Amino acid sequence: EGEFHDISLQLRQGEILGIYGLMGSGRSEFLNCIYGLTTPDAGSVTLQGKPMPVGLPKATIRAGVSLVTEDRKDSGLVLSGSILSNIALSAYKQLSSWSLINARKETRLAEDMVKRLQIKTTSLDLPVASMSGGNQQKVVLAKCLSTQPICLLCDEPTRGIDEGAKQEIYHLLDQFVRGGGAAIVVSSEAPELLRLSDRIAVFKAGKLVTISNDADLSQEALLSLAS
User: Torsion over CA of 98, 104, 110 and 113, rounded to 10 degrees?
Assistant: First the structure.
């Protein structure tokens, strides 16, 4: 209540749906609600025709949805932890039996993710805090992909990283949806959404203003709709 209301969106397989809005538009709050970090006053979420759990992030992950959080250092990573432990953090269900983690499976998963996402490191045992911002963000994405999600929720997925690392993240998201996944990307950077998205939903003051798939949509038009 007070964050957003009367928003209805449909996400298709193989699609990136961008969400654009200014501060206070309810864009991040909407994403957090889908993931289960907050509980809506009303409404529902369905995934492949099945109702999603409400207010339960662990159940949301099991249903096939992962969240790339807005602040990797605050909520996306355990900075003092190793690359290995961070990547495996959300995949404990696949890696454990009788509450015991299978160390061999954990290592294999981390090695596969480092190779797949081209994470630059000399050892899985290095602390995440020692990595560049771009590689830290890849570890966040690896952690999310390790749960084999159907849908990725991405909140400012390239904030605070350089242009080269941004392009790598864009490529990984493109790969994910080409492989049959779907993604919702919240970003305050209009060029980013215009580059990534098949459609863009514009939020303003907690409401959905429009959804556009216009290939000729400009940064200026997005800003005008959101203001």
Answer: -100
**At 139, is the pLDDT very low, low, confident or very high (cuts 50, 70, 90)?**
very high
Q: Is 90 exposed, middle or buried (0-12, 13-18, 19+ CB in 10 A)?
A: buried
Instruction: Please give, one letter per residue, the 3-state secondary structure of 129-146.
Output: HHCCHHHHHHHHHHHHHC
Nearest to 160 by CA among 66, 37, 61, 77: 77
Local confidence band at 203 (pLDDT 50, 70, 90 cut-offs): very high
Edge-to-edge strands of the sheet including 16-20? Answer: 65-68, 151-155, 182-186, 16-20, 199-204, 207-212
**Considering only CA atoms, which of 168, 179, 71 is closest in space to residue 120?**
168
Q: How far apart are CA 96 and CA 114, in angstroms?
A: 21
In this structure, whether the domain defined by 1-64+149-227 belongs to CATH 3.40.50.300 is answered with yes
Choose among 18, 2, 6: nearest CA to 184.
18
Q: Provide mean pLDDT across the span 37-65.
A: 89
Residue spans per domain, the chain: 1-64+149-227, 77-147
- The CA distance from 169 to 134, in Å, is 9
The residue length of the chain stands at: 227
Strands 50-51 and 46-47: antiparallel
The answer on pLDDT for 157 being more than 90 is yes
Which of 49, 53, 39, 11 minimizes the C-alpha distance to 151? 11
